[in-house]
Design brief:
406 residues, alpha+beta, Heat Shock Protein 90, 2 domains, five-stranded mixed beta sheet, 11 helices, 5 strands, 9% strand, Sensor_HK_TwoCompSys, ATP-binding
């Protein structure tokens, strides 16, 4: 259904064509009747009436006008004023709004008429003067017919070009919007994966520690009841920390701005690894090398999560009597981490397919263009190694050797 603007334009065009048809018909038909050419007056009427429907039915109007011009040539030797005025208007109409084939056909018929008309008018007396009149008339008619065709086609091409440019611009905007939507969706997926990794690391580690401490505490309570309070304290401390970190992450989900992280404390980092190892198990020990430089929160959190996930895997897979050694070295280029156990686990911890476990650690390290490897140790057990680069000021960093085991 056409819009209000389109209907307004169409109504204006109809009014214009009606006025144009009435004016040309009155002038040309009236002139023919005034000079006593009734047949030419009737032909003029047939020639000018198609101007009324030249936009809506261009092919029919063209055929009717052509028939009227041929009729005028047949019944009168006088030039047809209606044809001289109406034919260029029709050729312009065909060139401007009709398909290319119909427009070229109209121009070709106009060229033929540019010879037939002057021949009919000029050679009635068959004199030299008539030849001159013929040549001048032919040139004038050809100029008018070709000029109106060229103007019409140029305007049509200009409109087509503008339309193509608008469609191209609209398509470009659509593609940009689509790309932005894809980037937004990718960012959303990345954020969900990050939050999933955070929740997995927190919940899996904390529950593993709580389960191990609870089982050990049950046996300890039977032999040394006075030490049961220590185990319960460790369980409570681990649970509180897990609850705090979970609240922080869920707070980010609620407000989307990370304000909850400031309300519930900073994210864990490199300095918190010692406390993490202490709380995880009394069978885990920590060795550190070098002085850590100022690290970005993201690098510190990644190092912390690598140790946390590795210790969780030790608790889950290495066996009840396995011992673990955590080595953290700060070199001039990166933080280097090694977590090795002497347990009886023969296979690597299995990923659940959702980006957690070893896969989640690898994703974290890869975000910083680091390297992570995991596999059975040379003397049994399982070993996880991570190399996490960081930006540093070369003049302030000590020249520290890499860990010998690496």
């Amino acid at each position: 259904m056409p819009s209000a603007a389109e209907r307004l334009v169409r109504d204006r065009q109809l009014v214009f064509d009606l006025c144009l048809c009435a004016l040309v018909t009155l002038v040309t038909t009236g002139y023919s009747l005034a000079v006593g050419e009734r047949a030419l007056g009737l032909a003029s009427l047939v020639i000018t009436l198609p101007l009324l429907v030249r936009r809506a039915f261009p092919a029919a109007a063209f055929v009717m006008m052509t028939a009227g011009c041929l009729f005028a040539l047949a019944v009168s030797e006088m030039p047809s004023a209606a044809g001289i005025v109406s034919v260029p208007i029709m050729i312009y109409t065909l060139a401007r709004w009709s398909p290319r084939t119909l427009a070229r056909l109209g121009w070709a018929v106009g060229v033929v008429g540019s010879f037939l008309g002057p021949a009919r008018w000029a050679f009635a007396g068959r004199g030299l003067t008539d030849v001159t009149v013929f040549m001048v008339s032919v040139v004038a008619c050809l100029a008018v017919v070709s000029g109106t065709y060229v103007v019409g086609r140029k305007l049509r091409e200009s409109e087509d070009s503008a339309g193509r440019q608008q469609r191209s611009e609209a398509e470009r905007r659509r593609l940009l919007e689509s790309e932005q939507e894809q980037r937004d969706r990718a960012a959303t997926v990345d954020e969900r994966n990050r939050i999933a990794r955070e929740l997995h690391d927190i919940v899996a580690h904390s529950l593993s520690v709580i389960v191990v401490q609870a089982e050990g505490g049950r046996a300890l309570a039977a032999r040394h009841p006075e030490r049961a309070g220590e185990v319960l304290g460790t369980i409570a401390e681990t649970g509180r920390e897990a609850l705090t970190e979970t609240r922080r992450i869920l707070g980010v989900l609620r407000d989307g701005r990370g304000e909850a992280s400031t309300a519930y404390g900073p994210q864990p980092g490199l300095a918190d690894i010692a406390d993490l190892v202490r709380r995880t198990s009394d069978r885990a020990e920590l060795a550190t090398f070098g002085t850590p430089p100022p690290l970005s929160p993201a690098v510190g959190l990644t190092a912390y999560r690598v140790v946390q996930e590795s210790l969780t895997n030790v608790l889950k897979h290495a066996g009840p009597e396995a011992r673990a050694r955590v080595v953290v070295a700060c070199t001039p280029d990166a933080v280097e981490i090694e977590v090795a156990d002497d347990g009886g686990g023969e296979t690597a911890p299995v990923s659940d397919g959702q980006g957690h476990g070893l896969r989640g650690m690898a994703e974290r390290v890869n975000l910083h263009e680091g390297e992570l490897s995991a596999g059975p140790g040379p003397n049994g057990g399982f070993v996880v190694r991570a190399w996490i680069p960081y930006e540093r000021a070369a003049e302030t960093q000590p020249d520290l050797p890499r860990v010998a085991a690496w």
